[in-house]
Every structure is written in C-alpha cells, then in structure tokens.
Write a structure and sequence with these properties.
166 residues; mainly alpha; Serine Threonine Protein Phosphatase 5, Tetratricopeptide repeat
Length: 166
C-alpha cells in the first residue's frame, strides 16, 4: 500500500508536467494484454482522473480512448478495474460528454453480458447511479424483472391471438 501511494503521487506529478506523454505511455501499457499491467495502468488512469488537474481535464477524451482499448478484455479483474474507472469518472462534475456517454454505454454492454445472472444488475448499476439512490437498486431490478415477465406473457398471448386470426 505504501508503494502504491508513492506511485500514485509520482503519476500525479508526471500528469502535471507531461499529461499527453503519460497518457500515451499508460495506453501503450494497456495494449500489453497482461492482467497485472492492465489493472495497474487502469488504476493509475483512475488516479489521474481522480486528481482532476487543470492539465489533465482537457485530456479526458484521450484517457477514455485508452480505457476503451480494454473493453474487449474478458479478464474479470480487468473488467472490474474498468468499471471502477468508469465509476470514478462519472462521479466527477467535470466530465465531458465524449467521456461520459461512451463509459455509460460500456456499463450497459456489461449488463447485457450478465443477463443470465440478473443478480449482477444492481451491482453494475451502482457504477452509474448516484450513491444516495443505490439503496433503491435491488427493489427496482425486482420490479423491472416482474414487469418484463408480465410483458412477455402479454406479448405471447397477443401473438397467439394474432396468429389464430390469420
């Protein structure tokens, strides 16, 4: 933990002096496709976003581009690190549209991957729903699941009626 804190401090200092070079370096590290390297690079990118430096604010689209390069990674640890990055990015007040909507779209892509495990939906929604509303996520998902089942039954009945008439 001590080394991690020192590393984050050094990265933030580098981000102040040369944000484009640092982001390019971390982006190149994400392309290595090594779990530990990817997760560490994502954590460092999250630290840069978290620092919310004047030097890095205009570079958020570059940071998002770097993170987007990991979207196809199927490693669970990398995917979790990406979701943590997204959570931090979306919690900031200074998120540009180019960054926010791409990230939200990725979270919803993760939702579609986990449709067979509906328990994960409330957990994934925690990344995009403000903290004060997270207590409502489980009941909301139960209601949506119930509504989808009812809608599905009604659609099947309507479909059966229309096919009988024709």
């Amino acid at each position: 933990m001590e080394n991690h804190t020192e590393l984050v401090h050094c990265i933030v200092q580098l981000a102040r002096s040369s944000p484009e070079d640092l982001i390019a370096f971390l982006h190149s590290q994400l392309k290595i496709k090594n779990e530990a390297v990817c997760v560490t690079s994502l954590k460092l990118l999250r630290a840069i976003v978290d620092a919310d430096l004047p030097e890095t604010r205009p570079k958020k689209c570059l940071i998002v581009k770097a993170v987007k390069s990991t979207f196809s990674d199927q490693n669970a640890t990398v995917r979790k690190a990406v979701l943590h990055f997204i959570q931090r990015l979306l919690s900031l007040q200074s998120v540009e549209n180019c960054a926010a909507w791409d990230m939200v779209a990725h979270v919803f892509t993760e939702f579609s991957v986990s449709t067979s495990k509906l328990v994960l939906w409330p957990r994934l929604l925690e990344y995009v729903v403000p903290a004060q509303y997270t207590g409502t996520l489980k009941p909301l998902c139960r209601c949506l699941r119930s509504w989808l089942r009812k809608s599905s039954r009604k659609e099947k009945k309507l479909l059966a009626l229309t096919t009988v008439d024709h």
